[in-house]
Every structure is written in C-alpha cells, then in structure tokens.
Write a structure and sequence with these properties.
about 230 residues, Rossmann fold, alpha/beta, binds S-adenosylmethionine, 7-stranded mixed sheet
Length: about 230
C-alpha cells in the first residue's frame, strides 16, 4: 500500500488530462453556488489526494461512493475509466438530483445516484471497492460501526475501502477543520473527529486490514487516509 504525498504524478499529459476532466465536471453544475462549492472541494481534495484514493480503485467493476454529495468525485472516477461503474449514495435528496442531472449533462453513463443513509443503504449487489470522502465525521458516533460493517459486508474479498477524513490531532488543525465544517453545516449538526487509533481499531475489529497515512496539505488541515482491505 502506497502513500502519495510527493506530487510525482502531477505532471505530464496524464495530469493535464485529469485537470481538464475536473474543469469539465465543475463547469457542468448549473448553480453558481454549487459550482463554487465543487471547485472548493476539488481544491481541498486535490489531485494528489484523488490519485492516492484512485490508485486503489479497479478500472473495471462496481465502486461505492458513500455520502457522495453532489456526485463530483463519482463523476471524476467514472469519467476516467468507462468500464467501472460508480454508485453514489447521499442523505440529501437535492444533492442526489443534482448529481443525476450533471451526469446526464456530461454524458457520463457509468454512474448511478440514490438517496440513502450510511449504514442503511439498500444494496442488492456487491462492490469491488468503496470510498467515503469526509463522511465519517458527519455521522453520529453511534452509527459509525453499523456504517463500517455494511461496507465490509458489501465488499468482495480483497476489495479496498478508502476513508478520507479529519484526524483528531494536532488540536490546532482540528480547530481549523471544525471552523470550516461549522461554516458549512452550522452549529446543530453533530461532528465527531475520531482519533486515528480508535477508528483504526474499530476497522480492524470489523475485519479490515488497515493502513493509515496523513495527506499533507499547505493548509492546516489534518487530512487522513485510511486504506482498508477486506481479507
Ligand atoms: C462534507 S460533504 C462530502 C460530500 C462528498 N463526499 C465530497 O467529498 O464532496 C458530507 C456529505 O455527507 C452527507 N451525509 C451526511 N450524513 C450522511 C448519512 N448519514 N448518510 C449518507 N450521507 C450523509 C451529506 O449530505 C453531505 O453531502
């Protein structure tokens, strides 16, 4: 399992192609606010983060995106390889509608977007891989085990599950992340940043083999990637 903090894949024609793909996705959103939000998401989850996640996703097969929001990362990964299919779920109906509309605008046919709550998704088929980008800290603490168990059950043996989240330490980075999260979701919603050792222990208990590494940022964000593989 490899960390990719060097930015070594960020040059050359492939990198330019991926950059153009990102611009095309952002342009396809019709609302100026959503477009700006998606642009910011692609700044926060930058190219080397996408590559860090993407290296574990198969080029063919079914991939689950839990808490897909407006669907931008499903569209990104689906657009790179037409023989894989991306299946996004989110709790927010209007985000799901937007994701479907933008997929149609872009002519990206290897995606589906459905309404669903993490841990209670109605899944009829298994997946070769799954990911959750900045979702775990938005889930009530008591729901996280059920969420992880459902992903474990839905994955085929050997399949990867990538969690990109916010680490608990150091405190000043946690406060920075909390300030931005609160600006997005307000004061009412529960936000729980899990210490990496705790989430890692839970993932192992559920049956994943886990490798954890930081994703370095120029901003004081405590980004962390959990690379989990089903035995
Ligand atoms: C920070 S956004 C991240 C969206 C997307 N993964 C991205 O990286 O742009 C968090 C998303 O989680 C969704 N969400 C929150 N609680 C959820 C739950 N219990 N089940 C599914 N989605 C949830 C929200 O609606 C929101 O779209």
């Amino acid at each position: 399992m490899r960390a990719n903090n060097s930015g070594e894949w960020n040059t050359g024609p492939e990198a330019r192609k991926r950059k153009a793909h990102v611009s095309r996705i952002v342009r396809a959103y019709d609302s100026a606010i959503v477009k700006l939000y998606c642009q910011l998401r692609f700044v926060i989850i930058r190219q080397h983060f996408l590559d860090s996640v993407g290296q574990y996703l198969p080029e063919q097969g079914r991939i689950l995106d839990v808490g897909c929001g407006f669907g931008l990362f499903s569209l990104y990964f689906a657009g790179l390889h037409p023989h894989r299919s991306l299946h996004g779920y989110d709790l927010n109906a209007s985000r799901i509608e937007t994701a479907r509309r933008v997929a149609a605008n872009l002519g990206i046919e290897n995606t589906s977007f459905e309404l669903g709550a993490a841990g209670a998704l109605s899944l009829s088929e298994s997946f070769q891989a799954a990911y959750a980008l900045d979702i775990v800290h938005h889930l009530p603490e008591t729901k996280v085990r059920g969420f992880l168990e459902q992903i474990h059950a839905a994955l085929e043996p050997g399949g990867y599950f990538l969690i990109k989240d916010v680490d608990y330490d150091p405190a000043y980075k946690r406060w920075f992340a909390l300030f931005l999260d609160r600006a997005m979701v307000g004061l009412r919603e529960e936000i729980t940043y899990w210490p990496r050792e705790r989430l890692q222990a839970l993932l192992r208990e559920i049956g994943f083999q886990v490798y954890v590494h930081e994703l370095r940022d120029f901003l004081p964000y405590p980004h962390i990637l959990y690379v989990c593989q089903k035995h």
